[in-house]
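Hi X.,

You mentioned you wanted examples for the new student's onboarding notes, showing what a folding record looks like when two proteins sit in one file. Here is a clean example. The first protein comes first, with its sequence line followed by its structure tokens.
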Amino acid sequence: MEFAERTAMTRRDLHLANRLASALRRLLHGDAGAGLVLIGAALAAMFAANSQLAQGYHHLFHDALGWSPVAKLSSLHLWVNDALMAVFFFVVGLEIKREVLEGELSTPARRRLPVIAAAAGMVLPALVYMAVAGGHARLRGGWAIPAATDIAFALGVLGLLGNRAPPSLRLFLLTVAIADDLGAVAIIALFYTSGVKLGWLALAGLVLAGLVMLNRRGVWRGWPYAVGAVALWYAVLHSGVHATVAGVLAAFTVPLKLDRQRDSLLLRMEHALAPWNAYAIVPLFGFANAGVTLTGMSAGMIAGPLPLAVALGLFLGKQAGILGAIAAADRLGIAHRPAGASWAQLWGMALLCGIGFTMSLFIGALAFPHDPLLVDEAKIGVLAGSLAAALLGYAVLFRAGKPPV
């Protein structure tokens, strides 16, 4: 009898363990998994920066390396932000090209609403930022910090909702975020470039022309584009334009058309690099940049004009700009709102667009390159605004969505 009871208990335990393992696999799969890994990296960074590990954490990323193959990248932090993030932007460029040529941004009718929403979702946060912090001359350079949306984080939160969010909502969020990323790249190239060196810029132009020639001549192998992309990155790195712009430009030259084997080099590259982007590069960037030491910061600094401007720009500016643009376009007949999505769900989606984590942290470092204290204050605003947007966006979508059948 005791043996039978022990056997039954063992079977129940195994059944429970299998169910938990299955649930964990589902949770870590796709958008939700990438978002959770990124959240974990951000939490780990905050813990490391505010614990006994703080000194080691800062030394790891900011101390000069004993040797570096690229002299300008003298620390691990610079390698993450200027080299690994170029790969991130390369994947973003591949996604943008695919969507513009064959995806949801491929026709004027399809891209009209996402582009309008993305534009309004960048302008309104910048205006909110300037309304709060514009009176301080040294803070004006941070106007673009709340203008960007973190695709991985936003889609990760949306993925946690499962069937409560209609597929059209995910698709619209993705297209808005991609259009948003294109705008962010343009902002970085136009407004966060200084001390341009024309010789290096001319060399970058020649390398880019070579990559375009590869495309025109129908070169389908990946290695020439990879070599050209590295050369372009190296030239742009020394030109004064931020090196990550090279990633997007190189991606635009990769052919999307099918080759003789009915295969696409762009799709192959995107499929190969996307998991590394989501589960390695972006979390590592988050871990290297989200760590803010709160010890020694006064309440006045944490609630100062810079953190407040960034947080309000993300939380209020994003939702007001995107939801207002959708409503205006729908009412004026310019474009119709996504099919199958209620206004409450669109509000929740607009809130999720206020998660600016990766791109906002990146732009924050560019906005105040010589003032680490302002960079930390900007990080506090990014974390606070993104957290508020994520929590309220999830709550709105959870209540607005129908429970799965």
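Then the second protein repeats the pattern, sequence line and then tokens:
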Amino acid sequence: MQFVNFLSATTCFFLLLISIHLFFAKNGNRRQNILLSVLLFSRFGQVLNSLFITTGNSAPLSIFFQFFTPLYFAAPACFYLYITSFLSKKPILTKRDLFHFIPAVLAIIHILPWPGLAPIDWNRITSELHAEGYLSLTAKSGLFPSYIHYFFRPVLTIAYLGLTWLAVIRSRIISSGEVSNTAQYWAIFLLKVATFFQLLGLLPILLRNIGVPMENAAFMVINCTALLLILLYALHKPSIFYGFLLVAIDWNKQEWREKVVSDEMSAPEDFAISDLKAKALRLSTKKFNLSETQISLYAELIKKEMEENSLYLNHDLQIIDLAARINIPVHQCSFVINNHIGKNFRDWINGYRVANFLTQYPVLADKITIEAIAQESGFKNQATFYNAFKKEKGVMPTSYFSQELSAQKPI
């Protein structure tokens, strides 16, 4: 039992540490960090409550079980939005996405101490959870009946897991072998991990139905061991651990980007690359100086990748992502953009975004604001859009459209 408690405490420590770090991290995408933080914090709550259940300690369970209940119901939506944002070319959390958190709001209503409710029997809840887990919970823990835990919660989790797999399948990333950048690889990896843990959660039910008893302590050991092994795996993938879990590295620094891209390029590819990519790889060298043939080839490849896949619509796009997609070192990718195309990477992709904005504005101007159209065109915030537009066109958007309107009026 001491080993189980130690293993659970260790798992809780790492889950809490990473979730808190993600929530307050200044690097990376703020929205994505918060979504993943909620996921890991809810998993921390599950392990912590399991620890209280195993020890039969109902006093802290009465507090923490209620505290983490809304997070349990928010986690499936957070998972779905987190994964699909990596697959979409427009990773924007819209007002419509907030409807995914209705179950979490209902869970908050459930745990509120409403007047007139009968006292909650936490000793009975602890014994039931200790016996067969929350899927067999019959005692009420709040306003709604007990099936909010043993039926609605697993159905919600499985439904969102299915929706996430459906989004991945529809994107055809796996079938077409296009998991070519770190973000998409991480999304697929996390989806497989979540599927594994969901199937693991159904294991005790399956074993009981076939007459094989399984102690809650044994299930905790398997669960915690799997979590720690996954964390160890992430530690050996710098682009995953530092890019999505720890978020401690400034990925704009040249030396880190070159290291990650070179590591990913050294791995065997599981999909066929085009003749253009193969030719570029054969010409690639570790030296910074490039021949005119190489520069022209890389420039063609870079532009083709950017335009055909509309990468500029991703407002978190970094040069490391572009270099990884076309399998060339980051420093060479940066050199070609700066010296052959004639712009730095940020100004270059902002040019695409401004062009996309000008295309979309006449269609969407009557429906949404200029700022919303700019966001859909890939700009991360309002200030970046206005600065990029003025740099590209010489005037602010309102002045630009006023000039266009004046030019169109007959004399």
